[in-house]
Amino acid sequence: MNPKKILLSFTFILVTAFGISSCDDGINIFSDADDVQLGLEVSTEINNNSAEYPIYNSDKSLKNYIVNNIFNEILASPKVAKKNIYKYQLEIVDNDSILNAFALPGGPVYVYTGLLKYLDSEAALAGVLGHEIAHAERRHATQRMTQYYGISVLFSLILGENPSQLAEIAANLFVGLAFLGNSRANEDESDEYSITYLRDTRFYPGGVKFFFEKLQADGLVTGGSGLETFFSTHPDPISRITTANQRIQTLGLPQYRFSDNGTGIFRDEYQANIRSKLP
Ligand SMILES: [Zn+2]
To answer: What is the pLDDT of residues 77-92, one digit of tens each?
Structure first.
């Protein structure tokens, strides 16, 4: 990673992001439009990088099913406030060895086939997607960029710099984002919002913890499994299960585990419509 190149990318962003706005949880020098623009540039870069991010296209009905029956249903929640501002879309990355998903600023969400093959209910997938949508809605990436670089640094950077190569900028930005990672507080907030969003859907609201429960049951929580897992930057699955259970109890919802088959879990549907479409 070349720090100068990353700084250069932020210079460009700042040109379009001069308004300093503060929201509930901190200062963000970027606007919603900047989040959308950033997400667009980085997603273009990702979609053109088939070596690292091979987009799954073998069976289009897989993505269609997830988008129509899960992703869009979460977005329909009134609590997803920026759905008309952000460009929410889903892509599947064809890599069975990665149990992960990620969101870009402004709406693009990516989920790996490795994670799709590991999960075993629609509620579990809905929990992950709700979590990723929350990262975009809560603007964790641009908030983090604001904190990391500091306003004074960003202002000084615009002097004398004139970046022009957008593709390079987007690539470097993405490297920068990956480098920074999400904070524990961001992860916790996204877990909380996932529950909030899913309460407006047909899915069990606690689905976000199912992945961690399954990891734990499979003995993959402690020690290096060699797998790159969902939220690997802050792997604290046990406490996240505990926190989710507390929230579920406070809300008066049933305490289902990942292996249960209660209302809103949709295990058979996942098998028939998602898992069976992957080799
Ligand atoms: Zn996350």
So the answer is: 999 999 999 999 999 9
55, β-bridge pairs: 93
**Residues, CB-to-ion distance under 5 Å, ligand 1:** 182, 187, 190, 231
Instruction: Give distance in angstroms: CA of 130 to centre of ligand 1.
Output: 10
Q: How far is ligand 1, taken at its centre, from the CA of residue 159, in Å?
A: 34
Beta carbons of 68 and 89 less than 8 angstroms apart: no
What SS3 class is residue 278? coil
Q: Which two tokens stand for residue 156?
A: 């000084």
**Tokens matching residue 200:** 């407006």
Residue-wise pLDDT tens digits, 188-206: 999 999 999 999 999 999 9
pLDDT tens profile 35-52? 999 899 889 989 999 999
Question: What single-letter amino acid sits at 150?
Answer: G
